[in-house]
Structures are given as structure tokens and as C-alpha cells.
Amino acid sequence: MGWLSPTLVGLYKVPARVTGTAQATAVTADNAGKGRPQMNDTDDERLLKRQRHFLLGLEREIRQVNNRILHERLPGLDRAAILGLAERVAELRSEYLGLVMELCCRPMGEIDAEAIRRVGTARKLYDEGRAAFHALERAIERGYIDLPDDPSAHH
What we know:
Layout: H1 6-11, H2 16-19, H3 41-73, H4 79-104, H5 113-141
Helix pairs in contact: 4-5
């Protein structure tokens, strides 16, 4: 069901029938009346509607909170800033791969601890940059960041 984000399904205990992955459990003589009232189809439908409404509202509020906090922290986030981050990640990738390629061409006896440290630092910086870019993409996909104007849309 498209209305329920995978994030909410993973974080909260949502009945399987809400996500469309299983059939509703039938009330049998074994489980009927065990400390809880029996539910009929109408009650079940009302519960599912309330759950859906609750989760939609929660998802909307989470989006609003993230939007506010991210825009406070990143006020100048626009297309140029996003492309700048993508360019920086490409530079970090290039630096890391370049250092690794240099080490791979050297005989083992010529590889010192400082060269290995530089490769490790370059890898960590690249990994962090890549993770940050993925986090930014996810924030955009989830609606946490307002999309900048698309210059191609103004013909």
C-alpha cells in the first residue's frame, strides 16, 4: 500500500494486514475471549482506518519537523549547493582511488605507515561524503527538504 512509508513499517509495530502482507487472523474458540473483546469486521475496518489516519498524520508531522530543522541548519541549500556536494564527493572518491592506485604500483618495501594512514583518511572522508550525499537524497525523497526551483521548468 503506497500510503504507508517503509520507514514507518520498519519502526512501528504495524499489523501485517495493514501493510497488505497477510490475512486477518480469525477468531477461534482457542483465542476468543482471552482478556480482550472480540472484534467484528466493522470494528476491524474502523481500527484499520484509525491506524492509517494516525500513521499518515505522524508521517506528515515527522516531515514537518525534519523540514524545519534541516532548513534551520542548512538555510542556503539550493541546486548549486547540492551539486557542489556531489562534486566534492567525486573529488574525495578520486583522491581515495588515486592514493590506492599509487600504493598498488609500489613494491611492498616502499609502502610506509604514513602512506597507509593517508589512504585510510582518504577512504574515511570519501565514505562520509558519500553517506552525507545519500542522506541528502533521502531527505529530498521524503520531503524533508523543499525542492529548489527547476530552471528547465521556466521556458
